[in-house]
Amino acid sequence: MRIAHLRQADLNLLVVFTALAEERNVTRAASRLLLSQPAVSRALQRLREMFHDDLLIRSPSGYEPTPKGKRLLQELSTMLPRLDRLLSGEDFDPRAEEATFRVAVTDHASHVLCPLICRRVLPAAAKVSIEFVPFGGPTFDAIEKGRLDLMLNADDGYLPPHFASEMIFDDSFSCVASKESKYPGVLTLKRYMAAQHVGVGIWGELQTLPDKRLAGIGEKRRCPIWVPYFTAAVRCVPGTHLLATVPSRIARLESTNLSLRILKPPEVLGRFNYLMAWHPRMNTDAAHIWLRRAIRETGKALSS
Fold first, then answer.
1. How many Cβ atoms from other residues are within 10 Å of residue 130's Cβ?
2. 294 CB contacts (<8 Å, ≥6 apart)?
3. Dihedral (C-alpha) 134, 136, 138, 141: value to the nearest 10 degrees?
4. Using 50, 70 and 90 to split pLDDT, how confident is the model at 86?
């Protein structure tokens, strides 16, 4: 980590700059900082020398930031609260501290968790943004390199062993069939294996959970088509004899779709846990602890 310039800087000057930029007046800034007006003026001069820019210029309505001053104030609005929290050991406050989180999700989580997050988490987190991105092959590497904060996926056995993880809810599988199909409401293993299926896969040639469980009893289903999303699999079914095996919560979202039937699959498919996972270096980060708590509580609400 290169910090040559930081070693030469007085970080207290950044606090003075923030107060001046927000108050736009030396007297008010000095009162807020419990400093004398000459001390604030001297600090502004040092800031200008440090950044090689005027940063703040006088106008009839008070100090106005230069373009560089605007960029600096924007950066400091996030950086200084984080640094203050780091020094004090306080919890992350999503109402006062800006933060953007990047979370990789399958379409399962997108459909069942994201709506609850919008209703339950975001209203009390005015300064927080959550960017959900598609889960896929590069996800583990992105977590490793810090480009993602969290990932949400079924416990399919592919999670790197050194990642931290926690179960947030569990689910079962359901089969979705066209309304014209002749399948019974409860599928035997024999009937299930005789059908053709819409496969859902995000791992290339790695086995999905249903296929791993079938392989455990020496069976392999026939999938003439593969799609990357459960919702796409459901859309493939109407007007065909195909079966789509999807999480039951996804299937229930289609309960009013008159072109579909929801069937019970063979018992061998069982239930599965849905996880959030992250790199262990984030274990004690206050903002990340808040994010995990928010996801955990959303999962509990989903299960209640």
1. 20
2. 117, 121, 125
3. 90
4. low
